[in-house]
Amino acid sequence: MAGNVIAGSGTIGTVSLNAAGAIIENTGTLTGSGVTLVSNAGNVGASGNAINTAASTLSVTSAGNAYISNNGTVSLTGSNITVGSGDTLSLATTSGNINIAGNVGSGSSISNIILSAASAITETTGTLTAANITLSSGSGDIGTNGAAVTTAASNLSINSGGNAYVSNAGTVSLTSGSAASGDTFSLVTTNSGNIAVAGNVTATSGTIALNAAGAITETTGTLTSGTVNLTSGSGNIGANGNAINTAASNFSINSNGSAYISNNGSVTLTGSNFNVGSGDILSIATTSGSIAVDGNVGSGSIGSIILNAANAITETTGTLTATNITLTSGTGDIGAIGAAINTGTANLSVTSAGNTYISNNASIVLTGSTIAVGSGDTLSLATTSGNIGINGNVGGSSSIGTIALNAANAIIEVSGTLTATNVNLASGTSSIGSSGSGNAINTAATNLSVNSGTNAYVSNAGSTSLTSSSAGSATYLI
Question: Can you give the pTM of this predicted structure?
Fold first, then answer.
């Protein structure tokens, strides 16, 4: 093509080119309301030398690659728009939108679909099908909430000047992704498909929502946004030793299996409920910053909740609920006076660089080889109902300031010793320890305070001052 081809006046009329070989362009533009391009034995255009069109509708069938640049908004139409096996379909607009109005690509035999719109990419019907799909919009959205762009790809790259909403049929690797500041990046998979994060995805101050029918995994990259929402329908989110890397201020996680997340910076756990599969693990760590609990996390069927904060763990509302809970803070407190971390667990392990304040809503056992807080600091555990059971050493040396255990019912011990400068024990309606060899609460304290609803049996290693004592029956210091 060595000149302009114009059908009618303005954009009235149709331009149809059907070549036995290839369609190439030296100069000019194909202008019409509709443009149909067919090459039977070669390419349509070339990389770096696209066919220039000015059309409202475009239909392309190529035996090889197809490269087209349209001036203005254009709809891809036809029962099927396709290129050769292993080849590329590339469509760009110098202005306007790209609207998908038919199936584009016929299977994984097509290598690449590349759509680059100056404004938005929308879809009225059809599916983009290729091994690799690249979508980019300059100043508009890719898809809309409720009308996502439908793809069937092995690899997806999605970069939007606004929001991005894409639904992929089957498992897909997300090689790169972005949405505009404050906007939403949403990727959903159907047909039991997994999402593999294989590059950086960014929605600064906005939301990244990944909803996989299967699992969510990561090989490389970080999800960076104000809020990250992760959902897996039939698999894990991340893996032990290979967590999903995020840089978010707020989280919401719902997994049918386990979930492992590593966040760069402080994060707030938000949402009506965080959940993982029955008997599974929810593990959240920060490489810097704190973890703030701001909603219910877990349920009674969850196996373990593991929170490991580089700094502190705080709570504004909600309860951590699982069979086992492990809390670790690197340079700050866990909870605070008057704002304890609310838990609903049978087993608790705590390691804090500062103070720790926990309130549990049932009987609980302190487990682990050593449960410790910072030098001179306080470990406070209360139950609103039930017992406190000691099944491991609590405190590693007298450098710990205070261990305060306040049980609504009894305090019992299976093994271990409470070691701190001050040990304060209180039981509401039952005993502290019990009579008989090895049944007393073992302590190593300089100062003891013991207040029991009935009897109290305590055995201290070394000299101690009994600063206060009360019991419904008697106090026995052994």
Answer: 0.92
